[in-house]
Amino acid sequence: MAYFPAFLKLDNKKILIVGGGYIAYEKLDHLLDFTKDISVIALDLSDDMAKGIKNNNLSFEQRAYKVGDIKEYAVVIVAVDDIPLQAEIFAESKQYNCLCNSVDSVDYCDFIFPSYVKKDDLTIAISTSGASPAMAKHLRIYLQNLIPTGISEFLKEMKDLRRTLPKGKERMKMLDKKAEDYIKSWSNR
Ligand SMILES: C[C@@]1(CC(=O)O)C2=NC(=C\c3[nH]c(c(CCC(=O)O)c3CC(=O)O)Cc3[nH]c(c(CC(=O)O)c3CCC(=O)O)/C=C3\N/C(=C\2)[C@@H](CCC(=O)O)[C@]3(C)CC(=O)O)/[C@H]1CCC(=O)O
Ligand SMILES: NC(=O)c1ccc[n+]([C@@H]2O[C@H](COP(=O)([O-])OP(=O)(O)OC[C@H]3O[C@@H](n4cnc5c(N)ncnc54)[C@H](O)[C@@H]3O)[C@@H](O)[C@H]2O)c1
């Protein structure tokens, strides 16, 4: 079955990444667009991962994962090259209020990472439900080239209108028309 798309609020939620290699860095890089409350536990770090940790002042412990490490975390990303450990941490996460993502199998995931386009308040997330991460990536690149640079300003204008105009049918109609015209103007380019 396909995954339900939701946008998770990360305020006051601690995130743990286990692993410090290439894939851990990909996940870290994406998470940093949304939060800085990230800790890392890994036996060793790639250069990118070491830089990411240093530049963002993240907490890092150089050691093997041990049972109980996830206790304080709301989300754990298990980015180790060890599938049995991914299975163990996923099973352990069920004892706690902790959502788990494992990088080798959706069987050990409560959620999966989408590919995404982010421009200020706009986030477009793309998933193939794990069928083809490569396809998710290329669809992201395609969409990235389609979205006009002025989208952030347009969204700011729409946000201001929603804040200042009184709620009701008239506002709804006006905002709907403005959004429709904006999209039409850009698809006619
Ligand atoms: C979208 C993206 C987001 C991100 O990473 O943040 C992401 N993978 C990306 C890239 C990518 N990953 C892989 C390739 C090689 C080509 C290929 O296999 O297609 C490429 C392409 C590349 O790197 O160029 C290999 C791969 N990926 C997974 C497995 C295990 C498995 O399938 O069981 C294997 C095989 C490992 C092996 O056999 O060695 C699993 C997952 N990867 C997901 C997300 C989740 C499903 C997303 C969805 O489809 O909805 C899921 C299920 C779990 C998760 O990771 O959350 C990011 C693109 C970001 C961007 O650029 O926009
Ligand atoms: N989800 C995806 O998009 C995707 C894509 C390609 C590969 N993968 C899978 O991701 C996994 C990781 O790949 P990689 O290229 O980052 O590997 P890598 O070898 O570069 O990194 C593995 C990391 O795990 C750490 N580690 C291993 N055992 C540990 C333990 N017990 N405690 C703490 N840290 C530990 C190592 O120190 C290292 O930092 C592989 O199994 C690969 O098949 C996933």
TrEMBL record:
<comment type="pathway">
    <text>Porphyrin-containing compound metabolism; siroheme biosynthesis; sirohydrochlorin from precorrin-2: step 1/1.</text>
</comment>
<feature type="domain" description="Siroheme synthase central">
    <location>
        <begin position="120"/>
        <end position="140"/>
    </location>
</feature>
<protein>
    <recommendedName>
        <fullName>precorrin-2 dehydrogenase</fullName>
        <ecNumber>1.3.1.76</ecNumber>
    </recommendedName>
</protein>
<dbReference type="InterPro" id="IPR028281">
    <property type="entry name" value="Sirohaem_synthase_central"/>
</dbReference>
<dbReference type="GO" id="GO:0019354">
    <property type="term" value="P:siroheme biosynthetic process"/>
</dbReference>
<dbReference type="InterPro" id="IPR036291">
    <property type="entry name" value="NAD(P)-bd_dom_sf"/>
</dbReference>
<dbReference type="Pfam" id="PF13241">
    <property type="entry name" value="NAD_binding_7"/>
</dbReference>
<dbReference type="GO" id="GO:0004325">
    <property type="term" value="F:ferrochelatase activity"/>
</dbReference>
<keyword id="KW-0520">NAD</keyword>
<dbReference type="InterPro" id="IPR028161">
    <property type="entry name" value="Met8-like"/>
</dbReference>
<dbReference type="Pfam" id="PF14824">
    <property type="entry name" value="Sirohm_synth_M"/>
</dbReference>
<keyword id="KW-0560">Oxidoreductase</keyword>
<dbReference type="GO" id="GO:0043115">
    <property type="term" value="F:precorrin-2 dehydrogenase activity"/>
</dbReference>
<dbReference type="InterPro" id="IPR006367">
    <property type="entry name" value="Sirohaem_synthase_N"/>
</dbReference>
<keyword id="KW-0627">Porphyrin biosynthesis</keyword>
